[in-house]
Amino acid sequence: MALDAKMDGKLDFKVVGTRVNRPDGVDKVTGRARFGADMTAPGMLVGKVLRSPHAHARIKTIDASAAEALEGVHAVVTRADFPEVELDEATWDVLDNCMAGEKALYDGHAVAAVAASSENVAKKALKLIKVEYETLPHVIDVDDAMKADAPVLHDGRQVENVPEGMGANVVARYEFGHGDVEAGLKQAGKVLERTYKTEATHQGYIEPHACLAQVGTDGQADLWCCTQGQYMVRDTCAAIMGLSQSRLKVTASEIGGGFGGKTTVFIEPVALALSKKSGRPVKMVMSRSEVLRATGPTASSSIDVRLGMTEDGQITAGFAELRYQGGAYPGSPVEFGSMSAFAPYDLENVKTVGWDIVANRPKQAAYRAPGAPMAAFAVESAIDELAKELGLDPLEVRLKNAAREGTKAAYGVTYPAIGLEATLRTAKDHPHWTAPLGENQGRGVACGFWFNFGGNTCVTLNITPDGTVNVIEGNPDIGGSRASMSMMAAEELGVPYERVRTVIADTASLGLNDVTDGSRVTFAVGLATIEAARAAKREMCKRAAMVWGIDEEAVVWEDGAARPSGPNAGKHDPMTLADIAAIASNTGGPIAGHSEVNAEGAGVSFATHMVDTEVDPESGAVKIVRYTVFQDAGKAVHPDYVEGQFQGGAVQGIGWALNEAYIYGEDGVLQNPGFLDYRVPVASDLPMIDTVILEIPNPGHPYGVRGVGETSIVPPLAAVANSVSAAAGVRMTSLPMSPPKVLKAIQNG
Amino acid sequence: MSMIHVTTTINGVSQEYLCEPDETLLDVLRDRLGMTGSKEGCGTGDCGACSVTVDDRLVCSCLMLGAEAEGRKVETIEGMAEGETLHPLQRKFIEHAALQCGICTPGILVAAKSLLEHNPNPTEEEARYWLAGNLCRCTGYDKIIRAVMAAAEEMREAS
Amino acid sequence: MNYQAPTSLDAAVDILAGAKGDCRILAGGTDLLVRMHSDMADPDTVLDIKRIDSLRTISQEDGGWRIGAAVSAAEMGENEGLVADWPGVVEAANLIGSTQIQGRCTIAGNLCNASPAADSVPALVAAEAMARIAGPDGIRDVPVGEVPVSPGKTSLKPGELVASIFLPARPERSGDAYLRFIPRTEMDIAVVGCGVSLTLDASGNCVAARVALGAVAPTVIEVPEAAEALVGTSVDEDALAALAAACSEAAKPIDDKRGTAEYRVHMAGVLARRAAVIAKKRAGGAA
User: Fold this and answer.
1) Contact: A288, B35; criterion CB under 8 Å
2) Model pTM?
C-alpha cells in the first residue's frame, strides 16, 4: 500500500503523532497484567529441565527410573519421547536445541525433563536422573572454531558454496557487493586494515521464558506462553509434536521483553511432551541461569575490514570479511551482517564475505537488528579511524559518502527516499556536536542501518453495536503497539482514540501473523489496520447509502461520519459511526473490516548516534557522559514509544560496547549465567538519552511509517568505541571495552 | 517437610498462609496468594522485579523466606493504588511512557515509592542510584527517571 | 528443611549446637537465599536470628559502637553517630548490592560469608573491628580478620555464631574510607576493594593507620607495609606513592571472570591511594 498522496508528510493527523496513554498502562502499573509465568490451570504440574554440565558430550545412556519412581513425579521425557516426524532442517535444529538427541552441544543443553507435583519434587527428581556422558573436545571462540582441526559439532551440515578444505564448523558462506575492491583501494590516498572482535551478548529480557501446556486425550492442545509470535510457536510445536496446526491453539501472554530472543521456542515443545505423557497441564518457567545458558544470545564475531579513502574523504573501496559463530547450530546472522555492513554508504567498490560458524555455545537467537551491530562496529570504527588519520571531520566524511535516494546499496537494492543524510545533517547542527568536552572525555559518532520487514499479517476490525471499535491483531504487544494500532484505527475512522480497543488474538481466532520481528508491527500491522478500517468505512458508507436510498459512490466518510457527496447525493444529515452501528442489524448485519496481507515496502531505516564518554586513565573505567540519537521514523505514530525504542536500543548497545559478554572457562562452561556478572546497564550507569525523531515518509505505507525498533542498536557499539578511543587516545577494536581492556590499551599506548 | 503457619499483614489486610520452610516470600505471594504482580526475573536479588516493602523497608521478596514475614507488614504493587485511584507514580509512569513491556514496572514502582518516602526531593543521581537494583531492559531508564522526578514534584506540591 | 526463629541468643546457640546436619544462620539472607536458589546450599535447618532483639541494635560501648549481627546495612546508614565515627565502614556496608539488598544484608553476614571480595570486610579490618562470637562455651572476641580463613570458610567452631561486631572508639582527628572497583556503578562484586583508617596528630601527621585489601587474596588481607608508608608522614604524594606500591606488592590475586590478576595488582594501588586521600580529609587533614 503506497503512501497516501494527500498525506505526503503534510497530512493533518488528529490522533497519529499524539502522545496518548497506552491501553495496557493501568494493568501494567497495578500488577494486573498477566505475563508468561502468571498463568495457572487446575491440576497443574511443574516442569523442569535437566541440562548438560558439559560443553560437548555424547549422551550414552539416560536412566530415569529412580526419578520416575519418586512420589509426585508424573512424567519424565527425553528426546525419545518426541514423535518420529519428518522435519525440515531448521525445525529439526529447534527440536534438537530444545531436547538434545545424540549429543549435548553446549553447557546448559537440555537432556531430560520432568513434570512433578511441585517445584521441590521436580528439582529432586532431576537429581535422580542418571545421564552417562562421553565428554568430547569443545570449541568456543569463533576463530578457533573455524580451524580445520577444530572439534566438529556436526557432520554434513556444510552448504555447497563453502570451499573445500574449510573446517567442518564453517557451515555457510555469503558474498555481497559490486565494483572492484582491489582497483578501488589503489585509488585511495590511505588504506586501513583492521580486525575487530565482539563477544556474544544476551537479549537480557527481564521475563524468563514461561509457558503452560495442556494436551488433551482428544488430540487438541492449548499452550499459553510469552512469545514474540504465537503463530511461530504453533507452527513449530505442531510440527515437532506431529499435530495439525488447527489442533494446537497458542495464546500469547503479555510479554516481558524479547528483543528477538522470543522469536523461537525453547521449553514449549517440552511442556507439550510432558503434558501429553502425564495427562496434566504442565507449567514451565526458566530460571535466569537457564535463560543465559540455554536461550538466545547473539553471535560473537571476528571481522576484518579493508577501507580506502582519498585525502578529501571519499571512500574508494570497502571490504569486510565477517566470521560469526551462532552457537551449536547453523544460522548465525552473518548474512544480515554482510548485507548491512556498508549499507549506509554510496560506494563504487564494495564487497563483503560472511562465514557462518558453529561452536559449543547455545544456539543464537535473533537480537535486535541481528548481525548488524557487529558489522557496523567494524566498518564505522574503520571510517572513524581513517577520517582521524586524514584530519577529516567524521560527520563530513559520512555525509560525503552517504547513501541517498537512488544509491545502489552494497547488498543490491536501489534505495527509495531514505533518511540517512537527514540524520547526519541534524546531528551536525545539534548543540551536542559542538559542546565543549572535559578532561579525559571524547566524542564519537556512528551510523547504522536496518532493513525492516513487513510480512504476513491479518487484522480484523469490528464495529460494535454501541458504536465503538475493536481491532484484533495477531502480534504480541512488546512495547506499546496496541496503542499504535488503536491510534491508526481511530485516525482512519475519525473517532476518538478512547473508542478503540485493540486486542491480541490467539492462533485460532485470526489468520497467520508473522512473528513480531524486523520492526514490522507498527508498519505491517498498522498497514493492515488502516486497510481493515477502510474496508469498514466502505461498508458503513454502503449502509448509509442504503438508508438514504442513494448510490454508494455518492457517500464519503469524513470526520467520523458518512456524508452525502457529489451533485446527485441530495441533502442528508451525516450518519456517524455510532448511528450506523446502531442500525446495522436492520441494514445487513454486523459491520467489520479485515485485511490479510503479506506486506511489502517496509522502508529501510537509518540512524546516527553521538556519544561523549569519559575514561578514567588510572582504572580504564568508562562513563557515558552524554548521548544523542538521531533516527528516521518515517512517521512517528506515538512519539513517546518511538523515543523509547531509540533509547532502549542505544542503552542495549552501550551494554554490548562496555560490559556485557559471555565468559567461558577452559572447560567450556559459561561462568556468568546471572545478572550479577552478566552486566546489563543499571540506572546509575547512564545519563538521559536524548532523541531527535526525523520523519522522512516511507513511500510504502499510507502514513509514511517505518519500523523503528531495531536500527537504534546498530550504531552504539561503534559510536561508543569511537568516543572511548578519542577519550583514551588509543584505538579500541575489541568489545566489550571492559576496564581492564581499556587500561591495558592505554598502558600499551 | 512440615508447613509453617504464618500470620502477616499484606497491603493493610491481615493474611494467614501455610508455606514450606524454604519457600520464598515471592513464591508465597505469587503461588499461594495469587498476587502475581511481583515478578521473578532472577531469583537472586539482581533484578529487583520482585521488590516489596517489609516493615517499610525495600527488599527483594525472592531473598526472603515466607516464614520470615510472621508479624510483619508487607506492601506489594497490588496495594499501591487506592481503589481506582492510581498512586501519582503509577499515573506518571503511564503519562511518561515509562514502561514498554512492563515486566519490571511493578518492582520499579515499589522501589520508587520507597525512594520518595525516604527522600521526597531526590536529585536525578539519587534516583538513579536508588533504582540501580531494578533492571529495565526496554527503556534505557530515561523515561522511568523522568516519571519518578515528575511524580516526586507533584507529590511535594500536593503535600 | 527446618526453620527456626529463636528470640534469645542462648536459644540460638542451643539450636545451632544441637542441630543435626547442615544448619545455616539466616541474618539478611542475601547470600544464603541466593545459594539455596542456585542449589549451592541445601540446609537442614535455617536459623533466623532476626527475632533476637539484642542482635538488632546498634549501641555505644566504651566510646565505640557495637552492631548486632542482625542489623542491616541500611540501618547502619541511618545511625548518625555511627556514620560520623566510621563513615568508611558504613559506606562499605552500603555498597553491598542494591537498595533492596542493603535493606537486609548485615556486616556480620558479609564477614561470615567469607568471600574475599566482601565489601564491608576490608573496611572492618582497617577499623580494627572485633567480632563477638557466641557459642556453647560462651562468648569470645576476635579480630574480624581472623573470622574468614579461606573462600567460604570461617574459623567459627561448631555451634558458634557471630553475635555482633564492635568498632572501637575513635581518637580525635581520625578518618576512614573504603573504595572498591566495579565495572558498573552499582550491583557488582568488588574487583578490588580497599579500606583505609588513619589518625592524624594536631600538625597533620599520620600517627596511626591500617590498610586492608579485598579480592586480591583468598581472604581479605591487612597490609602493614602500606600502613607504615603513611605513619609519620603528612600523607603527602610520596607517602601515597609508597602506599600504592605497598598495596600492589601485597596483592596476590588470581585471574577470574571479574578481572585479571595484573589489573587487580594495579588497582589495589590506585584504590589505596584514593581511599587514603578521603580518609585523610575526613580526619581533618589538609587537602
Assistant:
1) no
2) 0.98
